[in-house]
Write a structure and sequence with these properties.
Distance between the termini: 45 Å
Number of strands: 19
Structural class: alpha/beta
Strand content: 5-15%
Strand order of the largest sheet: 5-13-12-11-10-6-8-9
Oligomer: single chain
Number of helices: 16
Radius of gyration: 29 Å
Helix content: 25-40%
Bound molecules: pyridoxal-5'-phosphate
Shape: globular
Length: 510
């Protein structure tokens, strides 16, 4: 609590003041045959834990009774040790017979050099191995100051999270969890969820999938790592859209891939420019090209599939936001057109429900399922059981379908609001990617400054609208989208916020 402020302490302040418990597992070793008395040994070891910052100020020590029992010494021995530490200023008794480590600044603690501050001289001379990892993580989190009206890509509306259903299902599943919470599970994921996803992908994405082809993952980001681990080593040829999703590019590159950019136009990836030579993988976003938002038409999908068979490539289809579709029937995924087991499909609940769930799925041709599961097992031994069980129940009970209907209508209204606000202030705007997904691309007219300038002017007026690279996209060299296109996510903003945000940008640019 700020001194002098009359603000009442809130729950967070109280939590801050609450001491953390120092575990009974404090590494105290007693030499019972030593000439040094036991209370001195205890006192010295606790003191050195405090000096070395292993026991931090505010940490609560075990009660003298508990520690005595744990160390198999008399309670008096511990009491004497605690008294010495208190006299030296290391610990203090607080109300409710709690004993806690004192603040270093408390004043009356003897000055000793901190053990942590001075590394042993020899270690400074050791030459360590350089880090071999090379990669640029996608900047999906804004750690800096957030704009008031933030049109960042791919953020679901926080209010749309199906909180009540989720809480109910969580309690239900916890009540009947049995040993599921305490035992390791199949690293490929919960059978019930894999069945449910297979059933969902039929009508929703036109895919005929067996549960055995599905591995439940920690989002598409992990699926990209699994695919890379299966196929990419130094020099592996991986084709990718240009511009593309930076998270995918960086993942492949971090495994040593040599990237082959293929240009994108107003219909998605230009299949006529695919390289006619052996390629191991091609990464695409056919439902809603990232970042342009274009949908790949059927003829290009078929060309892509036959090209992949010709050069021996697997197609990695990232279907990140296709559950959000506004107009017309759901699109058949590329994987739904694939009769030659060429497509590896990546799906996620990050966009339709919430990114912090970290729940997605990888659908592989059957012959890859065992290897993909082995990689998942090596990475983290499988997803959390509870989230998987709740998600399975949510889909089976019809909750997911209802949730999708709800967000589709909310997001459609927000998209319409964004388009009409842009038209109101900027006239006949050129926008792509508005049939579905959660962002659009605005191609700036010649009378407006370039994308970077618009981005920074908007930001000084509290609005986040993003040029390509700021929107977790990447371009190899200059593309038609690099300098004069902005990416606007709109699903996390309410209509008034969208109107106000765009009005501010217009006023700032005038
Ligand atoms: C194109 C694309 N793919 C994948 C992801 C990440 O998805 P996940 O949260 O499932 O890892 C994102 C996140 O914004 C994305 O834009």
């Amino acid at each position: 609590v700020t001194i002098g402020s009359d603000r009442k302490p809130d729950a967070a302040d109280k939590r801050k003041q609450e001491p953390t418990y120092a575990s009974l597992q404090m590494p105290i070793q007693l030499a019972r045959d030593s000439l040094c008395a036991l209370h001195i040994q205890i006192c010295e070891q606790i003191r050195s834990l405090i000096e070395g910052d292993r026991l931090r100020p505010g940490s609560r020590l075990p009660s003298s009774r508990q520690l005595a029992e744990h160390l198999a010494v008399s309670r008096n021995t511990v009491l004497v040790a605690y008294q010495s530490l208190a006299m030296e200023g290391y610990i203090e008794a607080r109300e409710g017979s709690r004993t806690v480590v004192r603040d270093k600044e408390a004043g009356d603690r003897p000055l000793r050099p901190s053990l942590a501050a001075t590394p042993p001289a020899s270690t400074t001379a050791i030459r360590r191995q350089p880090v071999v990892f090379r990669g640029d993580p996608p900047r999906l989190v804004n750690f800096g100051r957030k704009p008031i009206f933030d049109f960042f890509v791919g953020r679901p509306c926080p209010r749309a999270f199906p909180l009540r259903a989720w809480r109910r299902l969580m309690l239900q599943r916890l009540a009947s969890a049995g040993p599921a919470l305490s035992e390791y599970q199949n690293p490929a994921g919960l059978a019930e969820l894999r069945h449910t996803i297979a059933d969902h992908l039929g009508p929703a994405r036109g895919m005929n999938v067996r549960p055995a082809q599905i591995v439940i993952v920690n989002g598409i980001q992990e699926a990209l790592n699994i695919v890379s681990r299966l196929f990419v080593e130094k020099g592996t040829q991986v084709a990718i859209e240009n511009p593309c999703y930076q998270g995918a590019l960086s993942t492949f590159e971090s495994y040593g891939a040599e990237m082959l950019p293929v240009p994108v136009d107003q219909h998605g990836i230009r299949t006529s420019e695919l390289p006619e030579r052996p390629v191991s993988l091609i990464y695409v976003t056919p439902s809603h090209q990232f970042p342009t938002g274009e949908t790949l038409p059927l003829d290009r999908r078929q060309q892509l599939l036959s090209w992949a068979c010709r050069v021996g490539a697997y197609i990695v289809e990232d279907d990140y936001d296709s559950d959000v579709r506004f107009d017309g029937p759901p699109l058949t995924a590329l994987a739904g057109l694939d009769s030659s087991r060429t497509v590896i499909y990546l799906g996620t609940f990050s966009k339709s429900i919430g990114a912090s769930l970290r729940l997605g799925y990888l659908v592989v041709p059957l012959e890859l399922a065992e290897a993909a599961t082995a990689v998942k097992a090596l990475l983290n031994a499988g997803q959390s059981w509870l989230e998987q069980a709740v998600m399975a129940e949510f889909i089976k009970s019809g909750g997911y379908a209802r949730h999708l209907n709800q967000i589709r209508s909310t997001y459609r209204a927000r998209r319409d609001c964004l388009l009409s606000s842009l038209r109101e202030h900027f006239g006949d705007v050129n926008i792509s990617g508005y049939d579905g997904g959660m962002h659009v691309m605005w191609h700036l007219s010649p009378d407006l400054p370039d994308a970077k300038s618009v981005e920074s002017t908007a930001l000084t007026h509290g609005v986040g609208i993003y040029s390509l690279r700021s929107a977790v996209a990447y371009d190899f060299g200059t593309t038609p989208y690099s300098e004069r296109s902005l990416v606007l996510g709109y699903t996390a903003l309410q209509e008034e916020q969208i109107r106000e945000g765009i009005a501010r940008v217009a006023a700032a640019l005038k």
